[in-house]
## 1
Amino acid sequence: MDGIVNALQFAVDGVAQQQQATANNLANADTPGYTAQDVSFEASLQQAIDAPGGGTASVIVSADPATAASDGNNVDTGKQLVNGQEETLQYQTMVDMLNAQFRLISGAAGGTFQ
Amino acid sequence: MSLFGSLGISGSGIDAAQTWLNTVAGNIANMNDTSPTDQATYGEQTPVFVPTATPGQVGDGVTVAGIQEGDTTGIIQFDPTNPQADAKGEVRVPDVQLSSQMVDMIQAQTDFQANTAALADAKTAYQSALTLGT
């Protein structure tokens, strides 16, 4: 994978999926026997960026290893709410960076830099 | 993953919490029902939550698969002034515990709030995505 825009685009998708997983975990916070889902893409993206000649990054969905309560549910509501906030901030930051890249490109193409 | 997928997921969680609150309200409203001892009484209602999921993918929220009806045997109570009382002066009342209903209500309320918070987060993120390229 090469190019800032490509990397950012992949990361935005990844964070959107993380946010979806967080929403899903919270929706199932009282579903008996439900196991929380974790979504990760950071390590894979790093690997793809570092790979000589470009690699492919992927988004991995895995089960949260946390211990389940007596009803078989292992959703930690507090942790999920914090994750939700964090993902929103990450998402906004990456959108800002993408917009900055677009401004650079449009400036280089003869437009304005703002 | 659908466009704005998180919103629908949080919506399903809010719906589920609302259903739970409704059953709690119904249970408390019917706590003091009485019926003749030769008839069944009100059974405590509990929603059955089931995750909506595709294996290997991020889940798609929660659904209420049904409402489970509890024991309709209830408790036999001595209440001779009740017009429904039998020859021994007894009536059948539902076996609904107010304490456990209140705990369920608080849990349902917390669920509702948590889903609302996730919905607000997702909305903020999606709104920022709409500024792309502007």
## 2
Amino acid sequence: METLPLVVPAIWRRSLEAYRSLGLSAWITGAALCSLMVLALFPWPSRYRRYARAASAAAMAWVVVLSLSGAWRLSWLCDDAFISFRYARNLVDGHGLVFNIGERVEGYTNFLWTILMAAGVAARVHPGQLAIVLGLASFGGALALSWRVAMALSTRRSPPTVSIAAVLLGGSYTFASYATSGLETMLGTTLVLLSLERALRHRPLAAGLAGLAAVLTRPDHAIFYVGLAAAMALERSRRRELVRFLAPFGLIYVPYFLARWAWYGELLPNTFHAKSGAESYLGQGIVYLIACALGSGLFGLIPLAAAGIAHLRRHLLTRFVLLSVPIYLFYVARIGGDFMLGRLLVPVLPLFAVLAEAGARRLAAFRRAWLAVVGVVTATAFVLPVRLIPASEKMWNIADERTFYPVKSFSPLYVDSPFWAWADDLIATYGTGPDTPRIATGCVGIVGYRTMAPMLDIFGLTDRQVARQPLASRGRPGHEKRAAPSLLLDRHVTIADVDVWPAEYLPLFQLPSGRIPVRLVRWEPRFAHKARSANPSSIPDLPSYLLQYHAPAGDPDRFACDLWFFEDFYFSQAPGERLPFFDRLVNQGDVDAFVAPFYRVAMGDSPPGWVVAGRLALDDDSHAAWIATGSAFRAWPVLQTPANQDAVGHASGAFLDSYTDAEGDRAVGAIQSPPFELRGDVVTVRVAGGNDRARLAAMLVVDGHIIAAATGCKSEILSRRVWDVRPWRGMQARLVVVDDSDNGWGHIIVNDVVQWERAR
Amino acid sequence: MRMPSLPESPRARWMGMTFALCAAVLALHASSYLPFFADDAFISLRYADRLLHGQGLTWTDGDRVEGYSNLLWIVGCTALGAVHVDLVLAARVLGIATALAAMTALARYVPRDLPAPRAALVFAAGAFAWASSGPVAVWSIGGLEQPLVAALLLWGLVQVDAVASETRSWHALLRAGIPLGMLAWTRPDGALFGILIAGAIGLLQWKEGAPPRSVARLVASIAAFPLAFAIVQLLFRLAYYGAWVPNPALVKLSFTFERMSEGWTYVASSLSAHINIVLLAASATFPFLHDRQARKRIVVLFLLLAGWLGYVVVVGGDIFPARRHFVPAISLMCLLVIEGMVWAARRSLPWRAVAGAMAVITLLAGMLRQTGDRALHRALEERWEWLGEPVGHLLARHFGPAHALLATDTAGALPYFSRLPAIDLLGLNDRVIAHHRPADFGRGPLGHELGDGFYVLSRRPDLIIFGLPTGAERALYRSGVQMQADPQFFSQYALVTFEANGDRTVRARVWVRREGRTGVQTTEGLLRIPGYLLATAPNVVAREDGEGRLGAVVTPLGSGLARARELSAGHWVVRADFSGPTPRIAVACSDRELASGPPDTEFSVWGDCMGGVTVKVSSVGAALDHIREIRLERLSD
């Protein structure tokens, strides 16, 4: 991403634009809420004191009802929520807490929420509907609790009629957005608030239970749990309550932690690795916090909250906030925030709101009413429905995710997302359950839950191998690691929404689809027949195409790439078809009969009647006899690609790679191996990378003459070349690899140079 | 200057927390500019490195030249280097530590009679202004002495009030005098601060009616330290370097209209870029008008600020990124910010609220505003100094044993990493060049005007690198331009392309002397041509092979080409030290081909080949060759 000094002014400008573009209704609503909060500053008239309690209850009921109705209109269910739903469903179906059956990967960070969803599934309630209802209930609970906390903080001189904190939270677009979402955000927030409220009222056991429930709902809420414990420890009168506050941790959390450790075999959830939690992403985190503070209007609350802290500086609430909120915000900044605007700030919004209310009331009570009014007017920024990031757009790696997944119908549940429609298509074609094609996508939630097909999460949230890949470069949090095309092949993925093969073969792997480009990763006969029986035009007719195939005239590189594609895309799934196909090519004269045995077997297999006569050592530690020039091959033969390059498929040991960490595709250069004697009749070599024989080539050179050459196929999946070297047998040869291309795909990879001779 | 105090208890906690917070802001802010490191910082580190290796406080072998203007900084880096801290890290540690020391001086400046939270908020305003300032952040890790200057200046100012008070003592004088004296060792112009402070305090005392004798004694006691330190350094300079002024002064100082115009632009743009701190500092107007005690301190600060900025105008500003010379000005303005905030903190709540809000808004707005400052962007973008690391290491490995003499425009990274004896083509570290000012001196780019090509050629450098560490074919500055104007230059030097491997592969174009330590070695009946001299042709580079041997890589895209002087008559054989397939070697005298074939081809020279011999090495077909040496051996007459 761009550097912080460039992004911050852009956010600033965008927020000014967002405020300027607010409609009249937004300003009227803001003015109304502001007036209500200003009125709420003043005490109930003493002559009507007997009606105060009823009026207060009625007013709060109205605030809650209106807020719930606003939150209901914003209902949405994000894709990640369906990941938890799938875990819940697998649990109920007896497969344990897993995403893919048999793969124990902790791809969720909301244990308690997932268990609640599982309870809903067991009771035959759709977890999406349950999540919406639970989220709204938590939202209402948060408003009520903020009122309770405000009551606990109020002075006798100014008991609140209407809770300003509740009005602020109920009117906040950011806070109300996460009333639904299908995620645990609002439940976790409410539990933190409940824990605080119980602690304020000297109910340590209940506070501890609520705090622990918050930790089980989201592990990072441990910061609040520990913060509250520390705040209690600082108060002499509460120290004895600490034992009861912390008791649930030992009794509940420790056994839970040991059980999940035993089940998953990992101390940390997989999402921690997928999101590179151990690496600091402070720049993006600061951008996230600034965007959220401006987008949610949180900055408007800060003056009153500061006044609240100043007035209540020895209060448990202030100690709790000062101990936990800075650490929590630093944690959020360090991990780079989130890709959902505002989500990670939701747990602290009620704390700011109750502090703001406390500050306003104290100012009003101590003859600073005008300052309190100014503060409330400033705080109105919090209830203005500012859309910092426009609907369905991504800015600074952040999005208003609600706009991507709105709920159009509650019963039957329908989410307006292209992934919902894709899932419908998949169900119609292949049915549901584990005996369906494995699907690879970055949005594994909706498709994964609805089809219950085996899945590969492109971004690695639910996949251990992808999650542990080295981080290439920083980008959208949680979307930075990507499964390489070769991994999709290794994991037997059949369908994906990413490209695995070069665009030249698009007609052979493209599937008809709606808004999502759907690709075939492999042509699996059993699924292909199923698809064709459901709809003949749903999948390309590859067998018929192969029956009519001829080698492209005068283009050996294209022919080599065609054979590579057919092998990995089709013959690896239908090995019986390989032999007749190559027999036909030999008969047509497209393939030399002498080397044909190498094509009749899979790439890693030895052809019958042939044995290895020698292998060029690419993994030799001493590179003394190698000659290189340019920056492309500085690293000599390597065992793995740089972090910003896709993993190489079908690699056998070390390989030469002209893609470098520092320059990527721009690196150019050449490398030459030490001389080796040609002891065999055939040399096979695996090649990948760009397709440009003039500038990207692996060459076998004898006496300065190029006797064979190959280039890549615009893929990091190695393809095999077979060279007939009989005329040069017994002579000294060198492998020369040249990269003179600095364009996209301007690199070449060479691996497994093997000499073959006939078995005696 | 120090304000009244009250017993402190919670104050230390509050100030400590505020300090920790602002220190974190500074550390975070500074780290965002990594790995910026000014090339001139490497000059200082070369002095430190040579000092550590027992070669004295020198930049190169031979004539001792004072090419630095930060003695104390070099001593500090050397001290850390002596305990095996990498010198680049040492400079950065010193930078951050002294920037934080400056911050502690700001804390010390806050009056002790202010209640704890207010004192902390007042300190926060000054410390945050310091920590959030781009120049402070950049130069905390940029490798030069600016944070140390600021720290000593602030500590001197904090202590000097006790000297001016009626209860002054020797202890007070030492506490104020030593930082001000050390300032004179940190920068030659550092003594200016001490003299300005003494003058300003003396002026105030005189205005208040103090007896002239008392005023003179006060001024003398304050000014004595910087003057004494400056005199000690002058004596050292005369004894050790034999010079009255440091060499950089000769290279940079010129009192012309153009310089002042540049200096004015520099100061004006710096003030504009820091308008937030300027505005906050302007809040000191209130105590200036209403508080008699504060007025004296503010007058001193203002005179210092005006004096320093005036000096910067006169010397023509600076060429480095991130407004280096503005760091002392920022430190003074932070004190003025504190003065304004202290005054507000003693007023009623509305005053305090307004002042606090103004400070927060102004500082945050200033942070946003400085994101558009081009001078700071340069510090984010300028990384060419680090290209000197792999190139320097390559030169050190292969030309260090021969003590090759390097002439270079970039006197920092390349000489530092190569450790070769060197000539600074721009004269900062060369007495001869510094003393040969052209007639139009003072009208060109600051510090890049001097040069003497004839002098440099007379020193017969073995390696010449024009421009950045990656080199250039054509010279940019006076020494190089004059050298290339001499027709002998092109016959004596060959442009060789080296490829150096470090974190990344860097190509450097270096003019290499054809004869001598690094060139063709001629003895009776034997001509040895180093392989890298073949890398004069396009598409041929000199680089190390897998065993670290230097040679030219000859490919199908380019043949190696080298020239040598005369070849006497006789029967010769051409031999080669190479790896790769057998190359073809062609030997020609003028246009007459003498031999062509694989190594060990014999040939005869009829009559002396006085026009020079050309050796061309080609790879066969598609192969690559690594040629480390070509030898022409005479077999018989």
## 3
Amino acid sequence: MQGAHNNIYKPAIMKIVDRHDEAPGVRTLKLEFQNPADHELFKQNYRTGMFGLYGVYGEGESTFCVASPETRKDYIECTFRQSGRVTSALASADIGDLITYRGPYGNRFPIENFYGKNLIFVSGGIALPPTRSVIWSCLDQREKFGKITIVYGARTVADLVYKHELEEWEKRDDVDLVLTVDPGGESPDWKHRVGFVPTVLEQAAPSPDNCIAVICGPPIMIKFTLISLKKLGFEESNVYTTLENRMKCGVGKCGRCNVGSVYVCKEGPVFTAAEVSKMPQADL
Amino acid sequence: MTTQEQYKKRVKELLSNGTVKMVIGYKAGTTADRRRPLFVRTPEEADKLVLDSACIANLSGYLVTEGLLSDEKRVGIFLRPDGIRSINILAAEAQLNADQIVILGFDIVGQEVTALSGEKATDFSELIGSIKEKAPEAPQNPQLEQLEKMTPKERFAFWQAEFSRCIKCYACRQACPMCYCRRCIVDSNQPQWVNTSSHTLGNFEWNIVRAFHLSGRCVGCGNCDRACPVNIPLRLINAKMAQEVLGAFDHFSGMSETQEPVLASFKKDDSETFIL
Amino acid sequence: MTRILLSDKLDNCVARWRKAGLTVIGPVKKETFSSYAAVEKAADVKKETFSSYAAVEKAADFNFEMVMPDRSIKELFFPQTEPMMGYTIKKQDIATEDFKPPAEKRVIFGARPCDASGLAIDDPLFGWDYKDNFWFQRRDETVIVTIACTKSDDFCMCTSLKLAPDSTKGSDVLLRPLQNGKGWQVEELTDRGREAFKEIADQLQDGSEPAAPTAVVAEKFDLDACISWLKNPENFDSTFWKEISMRCIGCGSCTFLCPTCHCFDFQDEGDTYSGIRRKNWDSCSFSLFTMHTSGHNPRSTQSARWRQRIMHKFNYFPGKFTANSCSGCGRCSRQCPVDMGITETLQEISTLKP
């Protein structure tokens, strides 16, 4: 999948057409391709789960998922937390500014394997974006799936991302949304649950029968969520997650992102929990 | 008994009576002239120790390995006078507690190894003082003399040619006991003070920044020079800076644990009127 | 009867190739200032040398005596710093300029077989799904003429990697030094090699002079035993890794001189409005190589980084690309400031229970 250019490391230019503050330090950007050839390639290749390298010339590039689903390819949405040099430059970019994008790289969620099944999405904090990409891919073809449950929590109410979409999902009667914040993170008018995500998941007690789980979150949340899912009877091969690692090239050449023999940029970022448990855990 | 045997005995004593948890020394290497750092933790392992005229590397850098000294146990280490000066500097810069170090001092003269008496850093202050006294009279390095004879333009051309080989591997930094920063200035990216590319500017930036950061701190052990994979005469530039610092501030690095670093102190009677 | 190239014809060959527009490159040794040494007189100063593959103008510039140049051939195909594109940020537009490697047809005369095999080992990596044209443009424009080794040193280990002092891997033409020292037997191996030697066909002659015996390089470790040990997932957490790498100082010399190591980093150099994005060498031995912005570092200890190096070279890379990511040149051990290197580690591993 060589890009429109002969230089595989040359990014596409994107214009910021919208930006939205999700939570303190967390921003979503909506991007449009400036070069039709780049856009064509994206439309041909992008599937939910793939990631990109977003950057600013002069600062560098940073890796995040593509937060928009494969059912909506006219634009790219990405969500990130301002934490280092590149994300700070992206955070200070305005609507109308140009940034760079390289991708889409990596593997995908095998969404057609989820047809006819129930889905449970479990996510925490800033890890909702990759899950959200899958959620919309499914909601955009709602009739193909069974029951859909979303369990999402953050440390505090302010830290919840995609707040408007959370409201939208809550209002839908074909989605069961379970929202929670960590104990101590609730606001006075908080109407939803209070408790850590794995605990709340066990309370929601989804049945493992004919069910696929998609979990994204910080390593500690994933660890305990997997334990909870196993308790509920889920098989590791029916649980999907995403891994992230420090990346530079995104195409398997710079030697940086491997966990054991698995290159997150080429054979990931989407993995089943079974595949992750086979990796050397000390390399994660 | 040779110095080597004398010290092997001492190491076994120190380990068996629990004075130290580990001794850092030398053992045989791949070829006859190579020596490898050895980390001895039991009296039996001490039999692998070698102490001869090929044991020239300054091992003090291992003492600032993250976590090594944090259990407050003591560590023994074989050091020549340059290594002992390194300990003083590391202690003065609050990187280690000199009380935790048991020094097994030795010096190499020609093919002979002589033991130095003393085991605490303070035991060697007279010795280091006498090295400082002799410093201006010591046989001048002929290359340093040649450098002195060059015009600034020639010297610039000389160093530009030498640095052109630099591949930014930072082996010089890793080998140097004085380069212990957890995040070196070249690793900073907000902003990127020093480029990582090896073009003329990038190479100059790196090598000159390092030489400056070592002014008044380099002990002349030569670890950097030996580590450099492209044979840049790094010791020469650091020796030049050491010479300048001695002349301008009468500062000889590594005299004691309380010696102030020359780049980090300002005295009212300094010849400049301001810190710059 | 074989094709022979006599060394006194080499000047003509170099001139012929240069006239045809090719840059001729070969192993070159230069003198430099030696390290500081408290010497009594100038005459005692030991001259330091450094060697690399560099451009030559005549036969006398070559140095075929040395076992191998200090620096490997990889930097001729994957330079330490490579400008990829320039950018200029304007009000509503970003103008970019594409950089390509300079178009330069080259013939490398006198590469060592271990260096040439290093290139062949890295080809599948640089072509894995996405083709890195910085590498391939240079590969396509370069002819590699290797000279079989008649001597080795204590650090050579090509035979342990199932290669040999006269291996043809990665080579376009193999030359075998003659017993009488007056030239080489010529074995043309690829179309590219044949093409380049057509240029100097009249400098070759038929002959029956025997070739000198190739260097004897003793096998230093049992590679198959090592690989089985590495492939066993239980050994990932073995205490062996800490023990073997205790003296490693994380200097990166081994990775930078290695003909097959290929890790890199991107750097934008310039000011707020314009600059160049470069691809620079990086090393898995560096402490911040895998550091996340969050502060989490999956490989935060030197032993984890050493383990990555060995596992990548002898377990992960061959798992994806068949060949081991090592050509046995021994530069890692030869150059290591603390006398470590791959040889010692694999020797130790081959003594461990699988």
## 4
Amino acid sequence: MADLVSQAKELLDSGAVQVIIGYAAGTNGTRRPHVARSAAQAACLVFDEGCVQNLASYLVKPEVKRFGKAAILARTATARAALQLMAERQIADGSVRILVEAGDSVAVLDSAEALEAHLALQAEGISAKDRELLERLRAMTHAERWAFWQKELARCVKCYACRNSCPMCYCERCTMDCNRPQWVPVPSHAVGNLEYHTVRAMHLAGRCVECGECGRACPVGIPVHLMTFHAEDSVRRQFGSEAGRTAKLDYALSTFKPDDKETFIR
Amino acid sequence: MAETYTISNEALDRLFQAMAQDGRRILAPVDADGRIELQLVARPADVAQGYLQTILSAKETVFPKVERLLSYELEPSKVDLKDATPQALPTVLFGIRPCEASAFAALDAVFNWDTRDAFFNARWQNLAVIGMACTQSDAACFCTSVGGAPDSTKGSDILLKPLADASGYQAEVLTDKGRAIQALVPECFLSSEPSPFSPAVVESAFDQPALTAKLPGLFDNELWVDQSLRCIGCGACAFVCPTCVCFDIQEEADAKKGERLRCWDSCGFSMFTLHASGHNPREKQSQRWRQRVYHKFSYYPQRYGMLGCVGCGKCTRACPVDMNLKEHLKDAAEVQA
Amino acid sequence: MNERFEPKITAFVCNWCTYAGADLTGTSRIKYASNVRIIRVPCTGRIDFMLILKAFERGSDGVIVSGCHPNDCHYTSGNYHARRRWMVFKEQLEFMGVDTDRITFSWVSAAEGAKWAELVNDVTAKIRALGPHEAFHALAGQGIN
């Protein structure tokens, strides 16, 4: 495994960056995000197979941004998210040092262009397990799917771990917080849960980088990532665009082609 | 006064049947696709084996995630208002851990502070707790640092300890509610001497009284900033926590009818303390994180003479970014003021 | 005497085309099913997918969404945006298990009074055959203690 941690520490020591966003050892053998703003705090950084969480949400967090330039240890998911955030103008191009594995060595990407070039070589898509789950769901009748999601969503407690762990959910005032009118019910009853998750999936259609962080974050084990994966897949299939691949924003739902084809409008 | 008995596995099965016949529903930890959740069970065989804890806490039984307070219908010149009657079915919580059993006191402190919350009380009065002492723990547990123990009787009406030969349990009947359950099938409870029990080992991690005394002086310390840098401000910790009690009240209405609902809220949410003026006294995550720690370890002792934390570790396990409360408290206890 | 189920249908229509078209239906004295409640918006581009969910939540058994034909939008491109949104939203609803046969999307121009009547009659018959939207109606009150 390439030594991203040493490279990050060098950048911090040299003053090129003021904060490192990486991973540290967590409880019960897990790995967790770690934000280090000094050499002492950087001492516990690790990078191994257990480090899979998408860290890009920390790039748009005011509490982290205020320290200055950041270096971030990036798996493909984090890199895709960072590129999408640049395309959406949430991170200034060139303001972040993105450390990725390039074979056995470390590449430091510091522009949207460099990210784009690197990501063009990464084939990673969603996991085989998730693909299989999606196929199983799509093969069901709509009544079976309804029963599936109602059973899963009944556990939802509206903690918003899914939303808050998503790098693309950076709105300071989320639509859930709008209360005049209260579009989406706050309580975690059946209506509130269905509407919240459907709205979130729609807001991510064409923007989801398929990292699965939302599903990982859910404390009660609902496969919420499948909903956003489906929305992203819907956009990819129908409009050919994909989140987190290009430096120039190509958001399907804010553009159109006069000859978009569909089969269901009378 | 506690009395010790032995209850065999077969006798426990008979007890379950007797409780059901007595009109009580039984909630216990169940293996649901690998997750341990509180669900209705009929027999001891339905209960999960070898589990540590449930993901969500048992507070759901007395403080549900969504609860109706009242409903109304609107007509041209009158409002037909109906107070909701809490559905407080007689319930037995079976197999929850001593940490969770002791947490009900913290809920009671708030729900019966000055106003007596009718909804909490109706459910609480109809609830009996058969706790199960712990033979295992994990790195997130810290009950022994906050005055608890893997075999503590606090909060249980009956406390069970698994016998070493797995033939049944030692049962301590602790309260009137416990005695009422015992009275359903007294022959199932065989009087006996306390049998040897090896509770889980939970090393004490920090000196809590010292930390509580130190907190007022740490209010402006930078450590809250560093500890909360990875916090994403969701409600997972507050919602799984057996002592967290903050709630929101939502009105859902249209032109003809409406209802008022109570639902869980979290001090970690960015808008939790947002004023109508637009001012937010806790607009940074570090302030909200600090509030969480202080509420449980400083304000609760001041106001209620008890801690607002039982060291169950559910928050740590549920947190998407592993905000390990035991670690954070240990660091706070050791930081230079 | 059998009580026939009369579906409740909410129609979100754009002001310039479909609403005017529906108006023409009326002035032409063409009879059509009275199950529809029309909600007028300036343009289909304004139709948030939440509106469709809310219509079902508030008791609709069926929903019609209708606007100007492509290339005829009063605001030039609102209906193009709407079309893309519907293409994604319809698939998302199907994925969640909602019966999307209950939603009908259409282009009805200001001159198509007859088409509006035909559309409403067809949709009403279809929803009547599907029956009340039990799945959604059953959600109300679920999950509340």
